[in-house]
Amino acid sequence: MSEEYKSNETLDLIEQITRLDGSKYMEISNMVQNGRAELAAEKGFIKEVRILQLNIPHSDHVVNYEDYINKNYKMQDENLDHFEEWKKNDEMKKEVQMILKENHVG
After folding, report:
1. What are 72-89's pLDDT values in tens digits?
2. What is the value of pTM for the model shown?
3. Beta-bridge partner residues of 14
4. SS in 3 state form for the chain?
5. CA-to-CA distance for 4 and 17, rounded, in angstroms?
6. Which has the closest alpha carbon to 1: 69, 54, 61, 60?
7. What is the pLDDT of residue 106?
C-alpha cells in the first residue's frame, strides 16, 4: 500500500461491540484490533466485544472498507486511553451491510 495510508490492516473477521450505553454494532476487524477492543473492555471504555465470524472472504466490499479504514484511521497501540469507534460515511455503511449480508451475519 502507498505511504499515504495511515495503517495497513487486513480485515478478516466480524465482531460485535457493545458500547457503554448498552447499544451494539457490528465491525469488520482483525485479531489485532479485536485484541485492542478486548483491552478497551478491560479498561472500561466499552462493555464488551465478541467475535461473530472469523476468516471472512476478502471480497470487493471488504477491500473497499479496508481501504477506507486504512486511509482514515491510525490503529491504536496497547497504551490506549479510549476506544475509537470507526465512523462510517453512507457509502461505508452500505459496504459493511454488504459484508454482513455476504457472510450471513446480522
Report:
1. 998 888 899 999 999 999
2. 0.91
3. 28, 53
4. CCCCCCCCCCCCEEEEEECCCCCEEEEEECHHHHHHHHHHHHCCCCCEEEEEEECCCCCHHHHHHHHHHHHHCCCCCCCCCCCCCCCCCHHHHHHHHHHHHHCCCC
5. 29
6. 69
7. 75
